[in-house]
Amino acid sequence: MLDPFTQRRYTAMLLELRTEHRDLDAAIEVFIRNRPDDELGIKRLKKRKLKIKDQISVLENLLIPDLNA
Q1: How many CA atoms lie within 13 A of 43 on its CB side?
Q2: 69 pLDDT exceeds 90?
């Protein structure tokens, strides 16, 4: 079980990451529309988005108690 301070901190981090993930989604769409031939740039943005998704998953797992415990 997380202490209240850590739980609030993780929740704030989670909100920031979700916002960044959503913003990256929009940025990728604009990037593809404006520079469809820049495959490396698109790949970098998508890789960053995937990394953020992984971080979101880790934080969610930390915040949601294990139901099997």
Answers
A1: 4
A2: no
Give one DSSP letter per residue of 46-66, joined into a string.
Answer: HHHHHHHHHHHHHHHHHHSPP
Which pLDDT belongs to residue 22?
Answer: 97
- Two tokens at 47? 């890789």
pLDDT in tens, 21-63: 999 999 999 999 999 999 999 999 999 999 999 999 999 999 9
Q: Which residues contact 4 (CB under 8 A, 6 or more apart)?
A: none
Exposure on the CB side of residue 22, measured as CA atoms within 13 A? 6
Nearest to 2 by CA among 64, 57, 55: 64
Q: Return the sign of the alpha-carbon dihedral for residues 35, 36, 37, 39.
A: positive
**Token pair 């202490």: residue:** 3
